[in-house]
Amino acid sequence: MRRFQPTPEAPVRLVCLPHAGGSAASYAPLARALAPVADVLAIQYPGRQDRRAEPGITRLTDLADLVADALAPWADRPFVVFGHSMGALLGYEVTVRLEAAGIAPRALVASGRRAPSRHRAESVHLRNEEGVVAELRRLGGVDPAFLDDPELRAMILPAVRGDYEAIETYRHTPRPPLRTPVTVLTGDNDPQVTAEEAAAWAEHTTHAFALRTFKGGHFYLNEHLPEVQAVLRGLLSEGEVSRRPGP
């Protein structure tokens, strides 16, 4: 757990789950922007940055088990789960586990990811190094300097490949929908998510559902950070969820 702007007096927490190959540090600007409204917790997956020496986790469900266990001590106040891309899918599986433990989040915000039940056959994790790099260039979100420098990309590619294996081997297990409200954020030109695949998240909750579409691709949020922050502020505000309409 990483807290880049500790705000222990905040009445609510925001739990952030990074994208494939991403790190907790990507949420540092969000932590600063949302203080003192929320205490922002960013999950640092193994295999990157200060955890680079640790082996990565290549099964998404195993990672969800660990994240849910790590979050339990922080559930002393209301919290919202926010994940982008791989983080959105992981957020869904973590929320399943938290609901089962009786510590459901106030809301799940799924960004840049199709609904868990909408599977695509993908095999980026089986490509050679150039193939993985080509996919990262296609989606954007990674500084080209890291991809152009052999030493730098050698540092990040093991984590990227492991994360891609986790999401590409994941299969949704049919189960009752969440009782947690779900808000979906997506880019209108995201090659990883169609409009139908984003809307299908509504099937995964019996509570309120909302879908917000932004201009942009897979990393639309880089250009729309203020709007994304506004959505999160609304969900973090007391009573906001109870006023939202149902699906």
Automatic annotation (TrEMBL):
GO BP term, example: lipid biosynthetic process
Gene Ontology molecular function: any one: hydrolase activity
Phosphoprotein listed as a keyword: no
Keyword match Phosphoprotein: no
SUPFAM superfamilies: alpha/beta-Hydrolases
Pfam families: Thioesterase
Keywords from the named record: Hydrolase
Domain Thioesterase TesA-like, residue spans: 15-236
Matches recorded under Gene3D superfamilies: alpha/beta hydrolase
Family statement: Belongs to the thioesterase family.
Protein name: Oleoyl-ACP hydrolase
Originating species: Streptomyces dysideae
Organismal lineage: Bacteria, Bacillati, Actinomycetota, Actinomycetes, Kitasatosporales
